[in-house]
Specification:
- The structure is a single chain.
- By secondary structure, the protein is α/β, with parallel strands linked by helices.
- It has 12 helices and 9 strands.
- The strands form 2 sheets. The protein has a 6-stranded parallel β-sheet with strand order 3-2-1-7-8-9, with helices on both faces. Strands 5-4-6 form a 3-stranded antiparallel β-sheet.
- Helix 11 links the parallel strand 7 and strand 8.
- Helix 6 crosses helix 9 and helix 7 runs parallel beside helix 12.
- The longest helix has 13 residues.
- It is elongated and about 60 Å long.
- The mean pLDDT is 93.
- Bound molecules: zinc ion.
- Zinc ion (ZN) binds next to loops.
Length: 249
């Protein structure tokens, strides 16, 4: 990636009036968080995703589900934001970004200071009753399960599930608001996602259909590189450090 490419991205962001960011696992890998959904994580060679990562599997055996995810979710709590999370927060603070739509469940955009965060795949910090919707801290439910108690709702007795979107589950209502923001956007800044997971990936063709520029910054190829008005193949951390430096001037 060349300095002139990064300067070009900075210029486009400065000219945009309704820019929105879309982020994926590649933004958090430099914070030491594995991409759970990716085949490269090796997770799904050893474990059946339908058993430990689908709603059906959760209902069938919530103990196995919490046994699998409990420690993995806990491992996220000591992770810190990296320069790409800082870049997104800075752009919002400068008034150059209306919101960030993220597929990540790790909460690092909020921790970095972003205020308008659409967590369209949920968050690992909460759990929610499948029937009445009451929200619990996930820690509390994991502690109960580890003590041998079933993850039942105190209010209605149904199962309490981590508030993350499992395979085969619909996205939370905030996704509709994300799509509305993208329809209004004049620029979509896509960071660190291979754009293979739908329906989130569909926000990129939607942005083009409604006339927005699409900047894709990713280390690897993405499924919608051909739709990018501006494609930057780069490691995210050095890219973000350089863009932050330009924005400071
Ligand atoms: Zn309930």
């Amino acid at each position: 990636v060349t300095p002139s490419q990064i300067a070009d991205v900075a210029r486009r962001l400065a000219q945009a009036e309704r820019a929105v960011a879309l982020t994926g696992a590649g933004v958090s890998t430099d914070s030491g968080i594995p991409d759970f959904r990716s085949a490269q994580s090796g997770l799904w060679e050893e474990h059946d995703p339908m058993r430990v990562a689908s709603l059906e599997g959760f209902r069938a055996d919530p103990f196995a589900f919490y046994g699998f995810w409990g420690a993995r979710f806990r491992g996220l709590s000591d992770k810190a934001p990296n320069p790409t999370h800082e870049l997104v927060a800075r752009l919002e603070a400068m008034g150059r970004l209306r919101a960030v739509i993220t597929q990540n469940i790790d909460g690092l955009h909020r921790e970095a200071g972003s205020r308008f965060v659409h967590e369209v795949h949920g968050t690992y910090t909460r759990a929610r009753c499948l029937r009445c919707g009451i929200v619990y801290p996930l820690d509390l439910i994991v502690e109960r399960v580890e003590a041998g108690q079933p993850p039942f709702c105190d209010s209605c007795g149904d199962l309490v599930k981590p508030d993350v979107v499992l395979f085969g589950e619909p996205l939370p209502p905030i996704f509709e608001r994300s799509a509305a923001l993208v329809r209004e956007a004049d620029l979509l800044l896509v960071l660190g996602t291979s754009l293979e997971v739908h329906p989130v990936a569909g926000l990129v063709p939607l942005a083009r259909e409604t006339g927005a520029e699409v900047i894709i910054v990713n280390r690897d190829e993405s499924a919608y590189d051909h739709l990018a008005t501006h494609l930057v193949r780069a490691e995210l951390t050095p890219f973000s450090i350089e863009l932050l430096r330009l924005l400071a001037h």
